[in-house]
Amino acid sequence: MSDVRWLTDAEQETWRAYMTANVEFSAYIDRQMRRDSGMPMAYYEILVRLSEADGRCLRMSELAKASLSSRSRLSHAVAALEKNGWVSRRPADGDRRGWVCDLTDAGFAALAEAAPGHVTAVREKLFDQLTPEQLDTLREIGLAISAGLRKECEAAQAEECAAAEEDAAC
């Protein structure tokens, strides 16, 4: 494998610092959400995306894309959210195979109750730790990484849509 561009010591240090911070921060936020709100961060993100959508509803395929979730993982999460009475699913109008997920009033209330603790945790563990310049750089880095992954992510979503039979409009 002589054509492999191995990481330099500095790049290895950067990679590990990034991965450590990402994993630790994500785990911290998930623990905070579970402890304070009784829901994992993934469920909170689904509720947020629904709350921001017109009519507080989205097709399941759109919700999966918006919440950066696989359709399979989303289906399991929505089932759990339905049991809590926080969302409901219904057939999409005019599409026998498509499904729409609606945020219920109880779900909106759960989101509103969880939001202050979540925002406080994010502010304390991310924004308060960095200077304004570092935050600008972090935003630019996040956008650059996402742009570099866009093609692969879109291809993976297309494959998942092609394999799915329950929703005709991916």
Q: What is the topological layout?
A:
Layout: H1 9-37, H2 41-52, E1 57-59, H3 60-66, H4 71-83, E2 87-91, E3 99-103, H5 105-125, H6 132-163
Antiparallel strand pairs: 1-3, 2-3
Helix pairs in contact: 1-5, 2-5
Q: Gist?
A:
The protein has 170 residues and is mainly alpha-helical. It folds into 2 domains: 9-129, Arc Repressor Mutant, subunit A (Orthogonal Bundle), CATH 1.10.10; 131-170, no CATH class. It has helices at 9-37, 41-52, 60-66, 71-83, 105-125, 132-163; strands spanning 57-59, 87-91, 99-103.
Describe the structure.
The structure is a single chain. This protein has 170 residues and is mainly alpha-helical. It has two domains: 9-129, Winged helix-like DNA-binding domain superfamily/Winged helix DNA-binding domain (Arc Repressor Mutant, subunit A), CATH 1.10.10.10; 131-170, no CATH class. The protein is 67% helix and 8% strand. It has helices at 9-37, 41-52, 60-66, 71-83, 105-125, 132-163; strands spanning 57-59, 87-91, 99-103. It has a three-stranded antiparallel β-sheet with strand order 1-3-2. A hairpin with a 7-residue loop joins strand 2 (87-91) and strand 3 (99-103). Helix 1 (9-37) packs across helix 5 (105-125) and helix 2 (41-52) packs across helix 5 (105-125). The radius of gyration is 19 Å and the shape is globular. It starts with 8 loop residues before the first helix and ends in a 7-residue tail after the last helix. The mean pLDDT is 92.
